[in-house]
Design goal:
single chain; about 525 residues; mainly alpha; Fumarase C, Chain B, domain 1; Fumarase C, Chain A, domain 2; 2 domains; three-stranded antiparallel beta sheet; 9 strands
């Protein structure tokens, strides 16, 4: 995977994270610290929470129970137990655990939100989260159990258990009981939380946002790959370049479409095969001709998702919020995941579209009725050999599976907490299934690239358009051929699939292209 633009230490202020800095910490373990201003803001906020508790003001989550128990008063001497019990009782997730990078992202986002200083928690909670990030203690958090409203209660409770020396955590690649992991890392665990801290730790969209942000980052890479791989297929099929003229796309005006058309022009420039294949047809089928319109729409969708994600990376999403300037404590719904649920469903749908059009290009290359003169299934000895026949089957299977996963999670809701929480977002489900779609999509793109390189070699044999590739397409082709030879006769293609999957996910193809075309975006 390609690194973010610059992996540097990250200073938490509550308002300064972006997608690159988030990835730097979650995936690449960039060191984290807390700004002095954030520490001061958290101290002031905690002082207000203590004052409210002493004065027995009626404030949700400080002097009352939670959810449908909001009308149940809690004595001051039980407020610490109230917060601790919230973590213990809400850690009810199940299923496979989130990846370490996903949980690191959750910890980072929770720490950053608390740094704003309107959540009423002690600074020590944020200090502990930062220490866990820097020393590599990662809570084990099950993936299933969040409705995405009242925040990601179950996942964040599992995360919070480790601060109390409970639950489980990964340290230096080994799973331990939470207390042992913290001990080995030299981080003292807490005996208890205090008033408001249970909500401060668990109310929020940190799980869905972390998961979705990581998938978004990889989807942006997939969009680049889609353009790159499409240019190889376009070359093999002798596509018609008129449809990519700049004036065609500025006439419509969509930014992503204009960008993709430019990318294809850059990627295919100076290629002999394409130069000689021009005017062979009046126009191509949509899978070739409409690459800018489809890939461009995906890029515009991802830009929208990124805009929303970068807002949420710096959002305060717990409840209630405490404003020290006038000591107002306001109960609201910032924990609700709807602002992320829609974008993450959109993310999944956009990725599914990349896979669908990619599979159609693969089909055109293996289908002799559509391939503009290539051999059936890209074989050299048809009949005895099946060639790339079943490569397209597998790509079609994944593209179709994506259509099932692409059904929006956010259109579903189910009431909870005795109908107090009567409309939920399912945002965490949206984020998780976007990842399933993305992984299928990257595989479909890999299958297209494998097929396209075989098709290029067949094209060179059958003519009549010469053999030369553009510099960018040649660089991509050479990367593939360095690990996967031309298939003269059927062989154990499983091994080729393993290699192409690895190459597509490595970031090497994008780097090879950018070395030759700095303007590629």
């Amino acid at each position: 995977m390609e690194l973010p633009h610059c992996v540097q230490p990250v200073v938490l202020t509550g308002r300064s994270l972006n997608l690159d800095s988030f990835i730097s910490v979650a995936r690449h373990h960039a060191p984290v610290s807390i700004s002095p201003e954030a520490m001061e803001a958290m101290v002031r906020s905690r002082e207000l929470a203590d004052r409210i508790s002493r004065e027995k003001r009626v404030v949700y989550g400080i002097t009352t129970g939670f959810g449908d128990f909001a009308n149940v008063a809690v004595p001051e001497d039980m407020s610490a137990q109230l917060s601790t019990n919230l973590i213990l009782s809400h850690a009810v997730g199940t299923g496979d655990p989130y990846s370490e990078e996903q949980v690191r992202g959750m910890m980072l986002l929770r720490a950053n939100a608390l740094c704003v200083g309107i959540s009423g928690v002690r600074p020590i909670l944020v200090t502990m989260l930062v220490d866990m990030l820097n020393k590599g203690v990662t809570p084990v958090v099950p993936q299933k159990g969040s409705l995405g409203a009242s925040g990601d209660l179950a996942p964040l409770s599992h995360m919070g258990l480790v601060l109390l020396g409970k639950g489980k955590a990964i340290y230096q690649g080994v799973e331990y009981e939470g207390a042992k992991a913290m001990e080995l890392a030299g981080i003292p665990a807490l005996d208890t939380l205090v008033s408001k801290e249970g909500l401060g730790m668990t109310n929020g969209t940190c799980a869905m946002t972390s998961v979705g942000a990581l998938y978004l980052y990889d989807a942006l890479q997939a969009a680049d790959l889609a353009d790159i791989i499409a240019s190889v297929s376009f070359t093999a099929l002798g596509g018609q370049l008129d449809a990519f003229q700049e004036r065609m796309h500025t006439a419509r005006g969509h930014k992503g479409q204009i960008q993709v058309a430019k990318n294809i022009r850059l990627l295919t420039a100076e290629g002999e095969i394409l130069t000689k294949s021009q005017h062979a047809r009046v126009q191509d089928a949509y899978a070739l001709r409409c690459i800018p319109q489809v890939h461009g729409a995906v890029r515009d969708a991802l830009a929208y998702v990124k805009e929303k994600v970068e807002i949420e990376l710096n959002a305060v999403t717990d409840n209630p919020l405490m404003f020290t300037e006038d000591e107002a404590v306001i109960s609201g719904g910032n924990f609700h995941g709807e602002p992320m649920a829609l974008p993450f469903d959109f993310l999944g749908i956009a990725c599914a579209e990349l896979a669908s059009i990619s599979e159609r290009r693969t089909e055109r290359m293996v289908n002799a009725a559509l391939s503009n003169g290539l051999t059936p299934f890209l074989t050299t000895k048809a009949g005895v050999n099946s060639g790339y026949m079943i490569v397209q089957y597998s790509a079609a299977s994944m593209a179709s599976e994506n259509k099932v996963f692409a059904h929006p999670a956010c259109v579903d809701t189910i009431p909870s907490s005795a109908n107090q929480e009567d409309f939920v977002s399912m945002g965490t489900t949206a984020a998780r299934k976007a990842g399933l779609i993305l992984e299928n999509t990257r595989s479909v793109l890999a299958y297209e690239l494998l097929t396209a390189c075989q098709a290029v070699d067949i094209r060179r044999r059958v003519g009549p358009w010469g053999e030369g590739l553009s510099p960018a397409v040649a660089a991509v082709y050479d990367k593939v051929r360095a690990v996967i030879p031309f298939m003269e006769e059927d062989r154990e293609i499983r091994l080729d699939i393993e290699q192409i999957e690895k190459l597509v996910r490595s970031g090497e193809l994008e780097l090879a292209v950018r070395e030759r075309i700095p303007e590629f975006v």
